[in-house]
Each structure stands twice: as structure tokens, then as C-alpha cells.
Design a protein that fits this description.
37% helix; two-stranded antiparallel ribbon; 23% strand; alpha+beta; globular; 8-stranded antiparallel β-sheet
Length: 339
């Protein structure tokens, strides 16, 4: 008799469990996806997430925290005050990104460097005007460019030269994506995609009940940006993705095509053939910084870095000796390629 009662209770419990699961799944399927977009960090953002109410104000508040710490366009940000040698109290966001940037700089032997902006700027103007900077100008800039000439000590940024300026644009967007993704997870949201200026974190499934898929744009000579042909499509569910590459902004030397990427150590444009580097990682700030690094390092050195970091997945588009686009990707990336 007791065994019979026990079985009845077990059956009842299982029935309730099944019914509860069905109700939860039905609620999740019926719950709408919110679509937010706007402008931050000098670029456009898009956030899609499954939730019963809109959280755009809270999402933008999270982005604003990153802007207040790391945006050089914000004259009152922490990084702007550091650059102008004004008194400032560093917060956790600034310290975390500064330390991450320095670690990646060491790991890549200076290919990633948040002090390189003066060199990038002088070459940018040179390309536009058709008059590249002279050796004298480059040499003079070297005095205040170099990640090893700046350090965090006693809660302050110490520069070897007061003219040194920090620019986190090659890591801050990715970090901003991470911050928003972390906020959504804290709210219990499992299905979302966050994109800021092309840097992405995704989780769960899309409105179509499918994994999130993102296209990698084919590098083409198209200054008007009218050609959006895709090189490939990647499954980026539960991953962060960042792409670096001057897709439509090349220069030619001896008949070869190069992206406008400046090597922080030499002060000159890199002389290799990588046109774009896409990185998948667990954190978008990491993907962002390494994508920039690989543009500077070239394919052979990138492969060496990947031996130390098997957690990184990389998809590279480069130009061969005849100027044709070729691709190379790490073995771990193969499972992410949809087509």
C-alpha cells in the first residue's frame, strides 16, 4: 500500500514538473524581444534581448559609465583628465582596462599599444594629403609613444613624458559590449546580442529560435561603402567577436595592397598582407585588442600567439602576392563557420 502511495506521489510530482516546464517554455516563447539602438563612443550600438520590458535607459547608463572612464571624446572622462595631466581619481573600470591593455601589449611584444594615437593621427593626415610624415617627425613622436613608458603606480598613471596620451579606442568598445552583456545576465536575460561599432557579444538564441549568426564583410575597394558582400558567416552564440581591418582604406606599394595599420614600435605602416582579422573570445575586450594586434603582427606572428592562446579563435583575410584575397583561420574556428 505504501509503495502504491509513493508511486502516486512520484507520478504527481513528475506531472507537475512537466506541466511547469511546458508553462515556462511557453512563457519564454511568448516573451517579446526588445530592440534598442543609439549612439555611444562615437559610433552606433544595437542591443536585442528577450525581456518583458524595455531596459534601454539602464543599458545606456551602463554604457555611460564606460564613456565616463575611457572616452577621449568626453572632455570630463577619466582618460581625458589623465591625458591632460589633471588630478583625477581612477575607478575600477579604468584600472581594469589599463591593466588588460598593458598585459596584452606585453603578450604581443608591443603590437597592441594604447599610447600609439599620435603616430596613427600623423599618418592619417599624411595619407589624406598625400604627404606621409618625415622620418624626423616619426622619430620625434617615438619619445612619447610606447606602452612601457607609462605605468599604474599608487593609484595614479605615471608617464615618462607628460605629452604621452592614452587612447583605448581599440579596446573600449569591446569592453563596453562586455559591460552591457554582464548587466543583461544579472537581469536574468539569457537570449541577447549586444553590438557596439561592430564588436559583439551574444547569448542563447535569436527571435527565430536559432543561434546568433554574424557575417564577416569582404574587404573590397569601396570608399562609398555600398558593397557589403560577405566573406563568410559565423555562429557566434555564447561568444564575443571583434573584427579589425581597414576594409575600404588601402594603400598600394610596389603593386601590393596594404591596410592602413601603424606598427607602434616602428612608427610606420606595417608591411604585411593582412586586410582584416576577426577574433572570437570569451570577453569582447580581449577579442577587440587581439584583433588589432594581429593586424599589426602579420600572419606568421599571429600563429605564434595562438599557440599560447588556444582559447582564441581567429579568421584572417589577407592578400596574396598577386593581390587576390585569401583566407586563413585557426582550426578551432572551423566549427563556427556556417558558410
Amino acid at each position: 500500500m505504501e509503495n502504491k502511495k509513493k508511486r502516486i506521489w512520484q507520478v504527481a510530482f513528475l506531472a507537475l514538473l512537466v506541466i511547469g516546464t511546458v508553462v515556462i517554455i511557453r512563457q519564454q516563447r511568448n516573451m517579446p524581444y526588445q530592440h534598442d539602438e543609439g549612439f555611444i563612443f562615437g559610433t552606433v550600438y544595437h542591443v536585442t534581448y528577450q525581456h518583458d520590458r524595455n531596459l534601454q535607459k539602464n543599458i545606456e547608463a551602463e554604457m555611460q559609465k564606460v564613456d565616463d572612464a575611457l572616452s577621449t571624446f568626453n572632455k570630463n572622462s577619466i582618460i581625458s583628465k589623465v591625458n591632460e595631466n589633471r588630478p583625477v581619481e581612477l575607478n575600477d573600470m579604468f584600472i581594469n582596462i589599463f591593466n588588460l591593455a598593458q598585459n596584452i601589449s606585453k603578450d604581443t611584444d608591443g603590437a597592441f599599444d594604447i599610447t600609439v594615437a599620435p603616430m596613427v593621427n600623423v599618418w592619417g593626415f599624411g595619407f589624406k594629403e598625400g604627404t606621409p610624415p618625415t622620418k624626423h617627425v616619426i622619430d620625434s613622436l617615438k619619445a612619447f609613444v610606447g606602452y612601457d613608458k607609462v605605468e599604474l603606480k599608487g593609484g595614479k598613471i605615471i608617464k615618462k613624458d607628460p605629452r604621452m596620451m592614452l587612447d583605448c579606442s581599440a579596446i573600449a568598445k569591446g569592453y563596453g559590449v562586455d559591460v552591457v552583456a554582464d548587466y543583461l545576465k544579472k537581469e536574468g536575460i539569457r537570449n541577447f546580442i549586444v553590438e557596439i561599432g561592430g564588436e559583439i557579444v551574444s547569448s542563447g538564441i535569436s527571435e527565430k529560435r536559432l543561434p546568433w549568426k554574424i557575417g564577416v564583410t569582404k574587404p573590397v575597394d569601396d570608399s562609398l561603402k555600398q558593397d557589403q558582400e560577405l566573406q563568410t558567416i559565423l555562429n557566434v552564440t555564447n561568444k564575443a567577436m571583434a573584427t579589425s581591418g581597414n576594409y575600404r582604406n588601402f594603400y598600394y606599394k610596389n603593386g601590393k595592397k596594404y591596410a592602413h595599420t601603424i606598427d607602434p614600435k616602428t612608427g610606420y605602416p606595417v608591411q604585411h598582407s593582412i586586410l582584416s582579422a576577426t577574433v572570437l573570445a570569451d570577453r569582447c575586450a580581449v577579442a577587440d585588442a587581439y584583433a588589432t594586434s594581429f593586424m599589426v603582427m602579420g600572419l606568421d606572428k599571429t600563429k605564434e600567439i595562438l599557440k599560447k592562446h588556444p582559447e582564441l579563435m581567429v579568421y584572417i583575410i589577407y592578400a596574396d602576392g598577386l593581390g587576390n584575397n585569401k583566407i586563413w583561420y585557426s582550426p578551432s574556428m572551423k566549427e563556427k563557420i556556417v558558410e
